[in-house]
Amino acid sequence: MSTPHRVKVSLPEANSRGYEVLVGSGLFASLATALSRFCPAHRYAVVTDDRVAELYAVRLSRMLHSAGHRTDVFAFTSGEAQKTRETWSLVSDAMMESGCGRDTAVIAFGGGVPGDLGGFVAATYMRGLPLVQVPTTLLAMIDASVGGKTGVDTPAGKNLVGAFHQPQCVLIDPEMLQTLPDAHLRSGMAEAVKHGAIADAEYLDWIEDNVESLLAADPQALSRLIMRSVEIKAEIVASDVMECGPRKLLNFGHTIGHAVETLSGYALLHGEAVAVGMVEEARIGERAGVTAAGTSARLRRVLTRLGLPTSLPIDFGADAVVQHTRLDKKARAGRVEYSLIQDFGRPFIGPAGVWGHPVADETVAEVLAGVGSRG
Amino acid sequence: MSTPHRVKVSLPEANSRGYEVLVGSGLFASLATALSRFCPAHRYAVVTDDRVAELYAVRLSRMLHSAGHRTDVFAFTSGEAQKTRETWSLVSDAMMESGCGRDTAVIAFGGGVPGDLGGFVAATYMRGLPLVQVPTTLLAMIDASVGGKTGVDTPAGKNLVGAFHQPQCVLIDPEMLQTLPDAHLRSGMAEAVKHGAIADAEYLDWIEDNVESLLAADPQALSRLIMRSVEIKAEIVASDVMECGPRKLLNFGHTIGHAVETLSGYALLHGEAVAVGMVEEARIGERAGVTAAGTSARLRRVLTRLGLPTSLPIDFGADAVVQHTRLDKKARAGRVEYSLIQDFGRPFIGPAGVWGHPVADETVAEVLAGVGSRG
Ligand SMILES: NC(=O)c1ccc[n+]([C@@H]2O[C@H](COP(=O)([O-])OP(=O)(O)OC[C@H]3O[C@@H](n4cnc5c(N)ncnc54)[C@H](O)[C@@H]3O)[C@@H](O)[C@H]2O)c1
Ligand SMILES: NC(=O)c1ccc[n+]([C@@H]2O[C@H](COP(=O)([O-])OP(=O)(O)OC[C@H]3O[C@@H](n4cnc5c(N)ncnc54)[C@H](O)[C@@H]3O)[C@@H](O)[C@H]2O)c1
Ligand SMILES: [Zn+2]
Ligand SMILES: [Zn+2]
């Protein structure tokens, strides 16, 4: 293994050390060492899903056991449909059954689903256990594992119940992406495009220039993508841990995206829904006069080249989508706030430094229904 | 209403203002004003139980509505048996149903059960809503509402799932205790005795000298008790928000207490179980040579005068109790740590400033089984 690249996530709390995100090809093989160093514990509870477990859990347990770490694996059925309070209860109960106490650290191992669910278990088990994120999907590596958001879905919508719980460290081995299904690799790319769109126009160019090698899962291209995306996310998170300011920017594409994802019954992957969401929200921004003309068209082009959808499924009513955005966590005082960009790398900041832009439901409905010119 | 007495709870986090505990006879009548001042919000979700709702919810809603606050009441069946993940889910879902968003503040209204459960809803709803504690039992006033611990029980034991979530303020009106059943008033006294035992020998004397007026629910005596207990709890909490040091002291009586409470199937009230726990843990301390001789005898006398039990129910096996202490959150690395006192007002602090004293299971079993002299 080459020396891993390290990205520091600084936290503003006076008594917090922040934590490191380690990115290194082959890092998985030295997980035991990394754990001893960054999150020493009497025992480890690995929270994962059955697919990841099938591919990697035996190796993981063996490594940890031979390093002398007592380790139990708690695996649930893979998929967003399991990211529920019920699964959270079952995992917590199984941990109690096996006697995990406050001397246990949780390893959230897998994509964003085990990441969010394992993180929420760690946040709430005996009022909080130390947590290590070991993401294995692109989406989880560049987005879900960094920032401390944990939680589960409820029948009313995504991530409606959860907590902020920062990990002790995040350990990323890009080689684990070799086994990831193509659709999930593409889905993860949507968040990288988002990072370029909100924070770094050059990065967006680089992604567009490297679409082929990225989609071919070229390890070097993927490592570079992961590092830059993690840097961007870490910077934004560090500036605003509790999500009252700049962090809202990360919601670009997600107000519409979440609605679309829920309405599809999770037939659309998260990144696919976010791809649609970014294009639609760029169009909303163009219509509202805050986003430069041509932004949605450029996004549409990059996302299409990455094999991602860029418009609402035809059987989706605009009104149903609007309805769904109203329960969004970003809805305040009855109005829905959108995180918009002025141009690539230039977030929109409203009067008095307010992040987020309230948009009237009718405007959103018109844009979604395709009224007016398509970007 | 006389001007309320204010106790400040300072929090060590750099970016936290801490919060105030207001204690005042008749304060309930000016709740709307206090809320506008200490926790302004677009709307309020009152989480309570059906008994408290029956007694006070109509008045509360009316007051808040006429002050222009949009308010919804979410009441569940009273009792510890309802302090579960299921009730937490139902309340969260009902709040979603009625459209509560991030602009909502939660009012945890009632005893420690609505306090802990409403607090956990606030901690986890959309990853955290502002919270106000309005305790209505003595136990909740002097203990549960201050300190930010929230959570629910699981089949494996009490408070095994939860989060730290500090309120914006705590509003206490001792007059609400006039409707509290006698057994619950006595149960609350156990925690006041604990405060005296761990932090202030004079306060313990004062309680013993005022047993009659306290049990007669004399408003002045109760106000004084609440204020002193809140001060003690606030001081300890401020010194150790995350419970890694001095705060452990508050667990005095609770390692055995929780085991006894669970084993009784909650037939024993929390304070009753803690009364037993304090006497037994004082005896454990005496046996271990850390607690002054006569401590358990004195505790037994005060608690008996308060009408509280002081020994294990005869049908409880010592081994079953020991077994239960092993899942306690205070069990680390397989050993159970007890928070002991040297003498009244003098906590035991081990070598190297370590709080908590590991005690071998056999010693605990012997003491519980009554082997050796009764204190
Ligand atoms: N917490 C956050 O800040 C944050 C940010 C973005 C997304 N999310 C959440 O992340 C979730 C989506 O994450 P996801 O797309 O990773 O979903 P996921 O965890 O379900 O993973 C997708 C699929 O890939 C499989 N898989 C995982 N790693 C693999 C590997 N290395 N090889 C082969 N198969 C593998 C999984 O078993 C699963 O079937 C959503 O629930 C979303 O809300 C959270
Ligand atoms: N969070 C903490 O730090 C902390 C500390 C101590 C205890 N607790 C928790 O508190 C709980 C016990 O609290 P509790 O004893 O208040 O239980 P509780 O909330 O069940 O209240 C006891 C009973 O009194 C009724 N009641 C409440 N206020 C009343 C009033 N003013 N008039 C008439 N009836 C009233 C309730 O309906 C209930 O039936 C336990 O679950 C315990 O774990 C938490
Ligand atoms: Zn996302
Ligand atoms: Zn207690």
Automatic annotation (TrEMBL), chains A, B:
How is the cofactor bound, as the UniProt entry phrases it? Binds 1 divalent metal cation per subunit. Can use either Co(2+) or Zn(2+).
Q: Any idea of its EC number?
A: 4.2.3.4
Name the SUPFAM superfamilies on file.
Dehydroquinate synthase-like
Q: What class of enzyme is it?
A: lyase
Subcellular localization is given as: Cytoplasm
Q: What is this protein called?
A: 3-dehydroquinate synthase
Residue span(s) of domain 3-dehydroquinate synthase C-terminal: 188-331
